[in-house]
Amino acid sequence: MRVAIAGAGAVGRSIAGELLENGHEVLLIDKAPTAISVERVPQAEWLLADACEITSLDEAALQRCNVVIAATGDDKVNLVVSLLAKTEYAVPRVVARVNNPKNEWLFNESWGVDVAVSTPRLMSALVEEAVSVGDLVRLLRFSHGDANLVELTLPPEAALAGTRVGEVDWPQDTSLVTIIRGTRVLTPSPDDVLEAGDELLFVAAQAREEQLEDLLSVRREEVSD
């Protein structure tokens, strides 16, 4: 997979390093000469250019990229890069960094953003995830389809503990994508049995989040015979 990253600062370089370790082809773009540090990520391609300029993106051959990541520290730049990547080069997947939470509402499909990553929101979500059992935590927002990546840790008293995945009547527009059990990461199958303490990751429509939380909460035990 070919990935272009606009912004070669600490964030961009870190993302590049992770992607290269996973066998992907990476191009780092930055207009600041001081940001071009080839020795820090020598396996990547580097381009000294303004990612907001069509001529620069032509030089980067953005049309050959499977993913573009707008990772600069400027939200305006990230929005412009996202829009150009999607509308001018038809890049299938555009991921954008949100620096200021007040701008998060802008990072949607209208600006070409498929996935918006807000560092403050993500850090807050991770704190919530670390201390919350039985509460739904929103980790990531996907622009297309108004869907979110959400997490819930199954509490010991949950009615669904001990139930097979295939026997659960999951809400519409939700999908259980991963079960994290201790140090194991499980791809759910219908025969897998849910256990107390399982960390469940779903892709779910925002309108279904409350239903999902109710389904997995201990409140289901209050239903009488």
From TrEMBL:
Keywords, alphabetical: Ion transport, NAD, Potassium, Potassium transport, Transport
Q: Which PROSITE patterns match?
A: RCK_C, RCK_N
UniProt KW Lipoprotein keyword: no
> Which GO molecular function annotations are given, in alphabetical order?
potassium ion transmembrane transporter activity
Name one cellular component (GO) term. Answer: plasma membrane
Q: Which InterPro entries match?
A: K_uptake_TrkA (IPR006036), NAD(P)-bd_dom_sf (IPR036291), RCK_C (IPR006037), RCK_C_sf (IPR036721), RCK_N (IPR003148), Trk_Ktr_HKT_K-transport (IPR050721)
Quick check: keyword Transmembrane helix in the entry?
A: no
| Cited Gene3D superfamilies | NAD(P)-binding Rossmann-like Domain, Regulator of K+ conductance, C-terminal domain
Q: Where is each RCK N-terminal domain found? A: 1-117
Q: Which residues form the RCK C-terminal domain?
A: 137-218
Name one matching Pfam family.
TrkA_N
The molecule here is called Trk system potassium uptake protein TrkA
Q: What is the lineage of its organism?
A: Bacteria, Bacillati, Actinomycetota, Actinomycetes, Kitasatosporales
